Structures are given as structure tokens and as C-alpha cells.
Amino acid sequence: MQQGNEPLLALSETVVGYRNRDGKRDLTTPLHLSLYRGEFVCVIGPNGCGKSTLLRTALGLQPPLSGSITVTGKNVHQLSPPERARLFAAVLTDHATSGRTTTEELAELGRHPYTGWFGTLTPEDRDVVESALSWLELEPLRHRTLDSLSDGERQRAYLARAVAQQTPLVLLDEPTAYLDVTARAETVHRLLRLAHEGERAVLMSTHDLELALRTADTIWLFTTEIEDGRRSVATGAPEDIVLSGLLERTLGGGEVRFDRATGSFSVVSETGARILIEGTEERLRWAARAAARAGFTPIASKNAAETGEISAQSEGNEALPPRSGSISPGRPEIKLSAGADGNWLLSYHNRNKQYETLGQVVRALRALRQAELNPERQ
Amino acid sequence: MSLVRGIRSTSARGKTGAPVGVTFAALSLLLAGLFALSVMLGSVRVPALTVLRALFTGETGDAPFTEIVLLFRLPRALTALLAGAALAVSGLQMQTLFRNPLAGPFILGISSGASLAVAVVVVLAGSAGAAVSGLSSMPAGMGTTGAAFAGAALTLFLVLGLAGRVESASGLLILGLLLGYAVSALVSVLLHFSAAQQTQAYVAWTFGTFSDVTWQEMRLFAPLVGAGILTAFLLSKPLSALAMGEAYAQTVGVRLRRVRYVLIVSTALLAGSVTAYCGPIAFIGVAVPHLARGIVSGTNQRRLFPATLLLGGSVALAAEIAAALPGSQVRLPVNAVTALLGTPVIAWVILRKRTTGPMRRM
Predict the structure, then answer these.
(1) pLDDT for B299-313, tens place per residue?
(2) Which domain holds residue B336?
């Protein structure tokens, strides 16, 4: 939608990393990235891959190791701090702000790049601060000090400051960390509106992959390490990134597997004995998750597949991609059925047991698995 | 629009709910009252009317009173006011820059440098004997003042050099602290090898006093303090932003390095000149900013700065009045009085507003 315009932020041949006493440490290959007005971009990648360093470099807080970063054609690192502050607003992870600062004072600091020598706010500045506070529903909290706010409220106060700064670019480093699900969704929703309605370019790093895949216009994905810890950054719409298989390669590994069907990560067990699940709709879906949590590989029953509940999985098709040598062929010996009375029926070796809750089922399955792994203990 | 204006007026309130103007009027009155009291009280009580006459006409009609007021009490009160304001303001600057509630004007080793130089002068003056007897005969006079200035200036240049090399504020803070320890060690060594008389002269200097500044010296002291306070005042905008921490401050356009340099110079000017003329006055610089935070809310320097300035002057004047023990000939060391009287007050302020949250109230 915006690709036709000139990019607001452009990285060309930019190597991100840091310098220390031993010299340079590159975190990336030379990057070519563009951020457009009206675009909401999520930066994702494993811990320590350089997301924060990339943001700090773009903000001009540290220089790139090579290459350049330009905003509307001007080199970020040749601009003065006040000039940069009129282009970028930031929400960082180090909330070192004095706890005594009030919400209103924090929002007022967003006007810092525009005020005169003593920082006196003009009526126009005041109006900008007021509308930022009201947009984030912070009016009732304006006189509260930051240390009296909840994590979510404090994050909103920082966001109000960034909004009051009225910059074309807003960069946020993990703004949804420490927030509950509702606050996370609200934050991202606000950022989306800021980008789409406020015509700003919003760049946010996050570990909340599911939310990023659901909301971002574009994903910047730090891919697997190439050599010496350097990574390249792949970009694309979230759906294209998922289908390219890059996500599983980058973020999966070990016990964790990305499930393309559901767009989420799950823990898979090495043995993964298969279990047939019978049921419909959400009862089937959650029974499958319970079984997976107990260390089994759930397989949807035929009639469930026909209802389309677990898509494209008929009997005999593994719910998860096969892992070498871990699955015995043939029909699974264990079956979990959702009873019409709301109970769960677990049958194996022609024995049947009835459970009231999936919690009990998981405990029973774990005991079963334990018995199979250590038969001599019995 | 009227709604916005209504909100605006409520936002301009101090912590107590009183409008900011009222708070500052009260603080100014307090300062003026303490100033007058300080001139009136002492070993001899001078009547208020006489003081007023002396202040406005330079004459009291009573020669001894005129002399007491104009030659002793007035410069003493002025010194206390200036020194208190200077220390409090530089304490506020350092606490804001380092975001550390324990920081104060001497955190960068400014007074340690001055102390070392004074110790050197006191000891040398003693051992060199008659050749520099001019120095030893006036231990609290020009010799120590000049030495303290030189010591503070040398420390300043050392700290500025370090500030260019150290990226983090906490690194600078620790280096300043270490510098202070090293200098104290040198002073101990010096005193260890000096005569009892010189040791005592040095110790007397460390007690601090507001009584030794003459009108002659005031001509240098007052402009120096004034310049330091003006510099600090001009930095109130970036200092307000520094309440967010250095990284955030940079993202709203603060030129961090430049602000840090100017802050250090201004603090050295304030702390250095006070140390030179009054000795190392402890406590006020660390405590008064906390007192100010108990009175005005938030971290905006536009409110915090004037409150700290006025309170600093008031606290120093109150300490000076108490140290003179009105009606007696005894005089207590200023440093002892500030700490003894100030500690309960500060403790009360802190305990009163203590919240159960994490200790991030700086």
C-alpha cells in the first residue's frame, strides 16, 4: 500500500553491532531495510539477536558499524540530537525514569524538542499534550507519579510522551513486555492506529510472535546465524514469512516447534507416542492440546477431520511434522474421546477409564508415559 | 477550551495542594525571616528595628550595633544564604545527573581535592616556619581559601578528563568516589606526619563556618556562586528531561555530553567556592533536595529548582542561627549543627511519604 512512496527510514549496507575494547562485534550482515509512512512493522528474532541494537542504531543512540541510515534522505548520524528528536520518538526498555515524575510531566517531555530555552509550553504544546493524554485515556492519572502506576499504565504514559513528540517515526523496544494479554492487545491496537490513521511509521520489536503475525503490516525477521553470530534480516508480510518456513528455522529448535497450521509454537516431546483424539470443535482442539502437553502426538480422528476442525489432518496424518524415528507406524493404541456427558474417555490396551477434567487426563497420560519409559520400576 | 484551561490551573499545584505561587511565596518569606533572625541573633541580640535601619541606611545611630550588624552579622548571614543555596542547587544537579539519592555536591571529589590542598598548605606552612608565617598565622584566611580553590579546580579538570572517557554516569560516579577515598588517604598521611597544632588547624577548617567571609572576599564569593546558580538555572530544561534517564533524554533531544560537562563545571564552581570560603559543609547538598521534593511534586526543574534554592538558603541560615547559640559566647561547628538538626527533619519527610513501592523515587 505504501511501497510506491519514498521510504521514511532507509538502511543501506548497514551493519549493526557494537564496539568494545576488543574491536567490533557485528550482529548483522549488511542490511537493506525500508520503513514507509503508515506502516506498522514488527521486528522479531531470538533473544540477543540484535533487535534492540538495531533500534538503538536507527534512533542514533549508537553508530552503525558500517553503512548508513537515512530519514527522508538525511543521514541520522549527522543530525543533531534536537533534529533527531523531531524525527523519532522512542519507547525503550530501560525505564530508568524517576518514580517521582508524574504522568503529565512525562507526556510534557514529549514537547522537549519544540520548546525554547526554559522548556515553557505554549498553548499549542499544551493542546498536543492534552490530546496525547486523552488518546491514551490517561487524564485521570495525570497527577499520579510513575511509581504508583501499574506496568500497563506506565507503558501508556511512555506512549503518550512518544505521541506528544509528533514525530513521523515511532520506534518501540518490546513495548508489550510485562503486560497482560488485554494490555498487550490494546497497545498493539493503538500502535496500529497510530500508523494507519496517524500516518506515522511504527517500528516495534517484540517477542510476542502470535500478536506480531496477526497485526503487523510487515515483519522484519532476524534469521538464523550465518557466521560469527551475524544474522541477516528477512522482510515480508507476516503470512509470506510463515509460508517461507523461515520462522521455524529461526525460532524453532530443540523441544520447541513452530506449528504453521496454528501459527503458534508448542513444545514437542522426543518420543511423542501417538494418541487418537475423538471429538468435535473446541473439545477436540483442547483435548489435542492437553495430549500434546502430556508429551503425546495428537492425531485427530476421521470424523473430526470431516468437520474441518483440525484442518487437513485425517487419520494417519501427524498433527505435527514427523520427527525421525520417533513415531511407530500404524494405528495408535491410545484413544481419548470426548463423551457426550462432558466427561473424557481414555482407552488403551482395551482398558477404559473415565475422567471429569482434562487436567486429570493429562496426569493419567503422564503416568502412562512414565510407566512405558521406565517399565522396570513397576 | 475552558475545560483545558481548568485542567491547566489544577496542574500548577504543589504537593500540598496549594497553588505553586503560594508555596514559593511562603518559602521566600521563610528565607527572609531567617535572614533577619540571623542578623538579630548571636552573642548580642540586636533589636529588629536597629537591624532594619542598618540594612536600609547603613547606620543605626548606635556605633557598636552598626559595627556588629554591618561588619559581622550581615556578611555572615549573606554567606550562609549563598552557601546554602549553592550547595543545595549543586546537590540537586548531581542527584538528577546520576539519578542517585545519595549524590551531592561533593560526589565528584571536588571537596576532597580542596581538602587535600588545604592540608598541604596547613602542613607546609607549619614546617616551613617563619618563611611563610603569613600563612600559618591565618589558617582560615587567604592561605586555605586559595589552596581550596586550587584543589577544587585541579579536581574539576581531572573529573572533566574522566567524563570524556567514561560513557556511563555510574562509572563517573564511582571514579569520583574512589578519587575522594584516595585523597582522604593522602590527607591522613599528611596529618600523620604533621604537628598537633597543624592537625588542629586542619580539623578546625573541616568543621566549616559561615563567619569568615569579609566584605572584601564577598566581592569574589558572591559572583562565583551567582554564576554557578545561573548556569544551573539555564540547565533546568535538559535536567528535567534527564529525570527519564540518559537514553530517553537523548531521544527527546538532550545533547548529553555537553549538558554533562556544563553540569560538572557549574557544580565545581558552586561546591568549590563554598568549600574555599566556608570549608567542606556537608549534609545541606545531599539533604535539601530531598526536602524540596517533599514540598513540590514531580521532577520538573521549573518547580524543583526554585524550591531547592530557597530551602538551601533557609536551612543554612537556620543552622547558622543555631550554631551561634543565641545569647551565649559559645559557637558550635556548622557541620555538626546541620547534620544534628537536619537529620530528623529529613527522616520525617522521607518516612511521611514513604510508599510501599520499589525504591525508585529519586
Answers:
(1) 888 889 999 999 999
(2) 19-84+281-355
